[in-house]
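Anyone able to model this chain together with 3-acetylpyridine adenine dinucleotide?
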Amino acid sequence: MIENQVKDFDAVVIGAGFSGLYMLYRLREAGYSTRVIEAGDGVGGVWYWNRYPGAKCDIESIYYNYTFSKELYQEWNWTSKYPEQKEILSYLNYVADKFNLRKDIQFDTRINAAHYDEVSCRWKIQMNDGTSVTAKFFISGVGCLSATNVPNFKGLENFKGDWYHTGKWPQEKVDFRGKRVGVIGNGSSGVQAIPEIAKEAGHLTVFQRTPQYTIPARNYLYDPSFIQQTKENYEEIKRIMHGSPTGNGIQIRNVSALEESPEERSKVYEEAWQEGGFAFTSTYNDLFTNEEANKTAADFIRAKIKEIVNNPETAKKLLPDYFFGTKRPILDTGYYETYNRGNVTLVDVKNDPIVEITPNGLRTMAEEYELDILLFATGYDGMTGPLFNIDIRGRDGVTLKEKWEGGAAVRTYLGLGTAGFPNFFMITGPESPSVLVNMPTAIEQHVDWIADCIEYLTQNSLDTLEPTREAEEEWSRHCREVAEMTLYVKTDSWYTGANIKGKPRSFLIYLGGFVYYKQKCNEVSASGYDGFVLSSRMTLQ
Ligand code: N01
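re: yes, here you go
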């Protein structure tokens, strides 16, 4: 049982990343007392923790920002097409300063537990420093990818060198010069870090379980005149972000890959490859729904890998065979080329599995590799992981983990709330479009919806709101049905939860498109929150 509270707030928000900062801004502007609790000693969320070499965003800068303030958009200058982690972190610090947000953020503090009290209709929130607060609204801005996954390899505790996870990178620079470095994992984080570390390390050994498709980012510095133009076109950029299926400027060609001849397709793929970025994933409209269409893109990239990588044995190990794009598509800067360097070795740990971490390195079935530094680019327990790490209890003391059966029975209404957990909101929660939409766009839409909802409750003297079981059953079923129509569910990935041992398989990202999703959310609010139960304490007593 949580101890006596110290202070009562209208709202408590978890995390000071893109979500928490904007949620704080909206609620405070509307006059609600709000406290953000942040584990790090600064703002930034994932961009605070992911400081590994090469970390950058693969959404174009001019779309990877807030649109709620025209003034902010006019003031900030992005320097390159794909912003580096440092620049995004500076941006979020600028936002925090501009809107004077820090005074309502409690840093260096984790929320351990949040229990709903049915008598007071308040959330009782307990922190890791022993303090607790209460709040009418409890809002998660914890992010989809904040629970790091360090696989439980035998012997890690005996490793004499230094080891790091990409998602919990130290603030000080890690010096790889002359060192024997091992990297486990080659998803988005590994693919960004590997070429950078290879430039510095004495020797780099990459332990790869599944090869990946990656597309050249071809990042470049923006011309200041281009940035000036985007400022003049602020309204148009905002319209594109909030009115497109992916929440950014990417337009998918409305053509099937199978409608065009092999020659035409090669030309289209080649042009997109040369252009770089997600132009490649936007070439055809059925790459993620039709196996045959998908194979045309996969074959093209496999041919590129063979062309780029000099050693045929290494090239062979790098050839992926799952459906292209069904693990998160990756953009790289010189990833495949890195394997042409003399100081880089690729080890296929699917064929030669890792047995243990030894005091001096890592041992596979066939060999031992001596290492000074070991890097885990092994990803996250996505979507449910960060929520399950907090002891969140709704009505009757039922935990979120119990209600969702450890992830086997996740049920939400629009990914915004879940029955039995009154006044609990999730920003980009499971079963919302979240990571398959440009995150700042998805976040702004959710924060605006939540802030408007809270205002509606206040204006109508209502105390609680929670989804009905029927509404969430229906929404969850719809999410699963849409996902089943795609190739995503056929691949083992963090999207399907297959990356975490014992995690139930499920697909918790809504794939019906951001425009439809937003329209549905708007209809729900316009109807007076159809699918939710709203009540006042007067009626509860
Ligand atoms: O994690 P991942 P990530 N033994 O899960 C391997 C976002 N992001 O941190 O494929 C050996 O993708 C695992 O192998 P396998 C983005 O949404 C965005 O790279 O499971 N290997 C895989 O190679 C992204 O999708 C940016 O067989 C093991 C790797 O570790 C998400 O974050 C940048 C293993 C994990 O790849 C996660 O990316 C970075 C084991 N026991 C991240 N366990 C942008 O650019 C795992 N692996 C915006």
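The longest strand covers residues 132-140.
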